[in-house]
Design a protein that fits this description.
The chain is of the alpha/beta class. The protein contains 14 helices and 12 strands. The protein has a 5-stranded mixed sheet, with helices on one face. Strands 3-6-7 form a 3-stranded parallel sheet, with no helix packed on it. A two-stranded antiparallel ribbon has the order 1-2. The two termini are 18 Å apart.
Length: 358
Amino acid sequence: MTRATRASRLSGLLASVLLLAAAAVGCGSSDSGSGSSSSGASGTDSKSVAGAYPVTLDHKFGSTTIKSEPKRIVTVGLTDQDAVLALGKVPVATTEWLGGYKGAVGPWAQDKLGGAAAPTVLKDTGTGPQVEKIAALKPDLILAVYSGLTKSQYESLSKFAPVVAQPKAYNNYGVPWQQQTEEIGKALGKETEAKTLVSGVEDKFAAAKKANPAFTGASAVMATPYEGTFVFGSQDPRSRFLSDLGFSLPKDLDKVIGDQFGANISKERFDLLDQDVDVWIVPDTTTAVTKLHNDKIYADLNVVKQGREVFVKETSDYGNAVSLSTVLSIPYVLNRMVPQLAAAVDGKTATKVEQPAS
């Protein structure tokens, strides 16, 4: 995936956030019905769904009722497919974000396909879901949990299937992976199984924190050199990954970011970058790093002079897993980033932060 394509996606996410900020927010009517029940997903544990329906889920635009177990699931949320796959279902369609993966299913989730065909991949270039193509797939459930869905887009999609939109409590594209997994678990009749999955990943975070006590209380920030310097806010899943490991985020971060998942900062606010560790998602780990260090203001920060930076190539499997931050991709990231973070905060300037072997 090219840098231009990734930049286009980030622009699309920003545009969606701005659209929603300008739109009048109201509650949509509750949806019900399960639509078509034709085959298109993997089998499910009948014990998990017994008595689970009807189920009603609250979200940004009101509430949605799902009357029976969904068989044809379309994920509009850009990372929702991982939770669906983790819970034993295969969507009939996913929405492409990162590119490069058949069915928009990364290597950390491939084994969850089993023998099922890869999902159809839909596009969202920042203008919203492809409503006509989604309708043609005859879904009986549309998931838009990790999304920036607008009210009008929600209403359009709701005409032909129940839609579970993003939670009201968080910024667009700001739902924590835990709640994302559990909300999708409820929709699929697998609430208990979803909670078990979440607990399993939280145990991995706890183990990493225990093995690396230096993480707790250390400050960290995640950023990318997108059109200058783009810093992710506290509600972005990438920042939450650091928080879940025990790191504290910059004090004024949300004051600068506002109610968005992230924002570009001026050089006058490079103090936000002078933390115990900076995690950079970069186009490459050579020339992009050199360009960052050629900025005299940034290069003069202690985080640079003391070698406390972590660099992640954005278009690698590792970089894509960092951006997704799902119940399936997070263990993949923990295996790679924890050793890097440990090297960055060990208090020894000479310690080199190595790139993962794969």
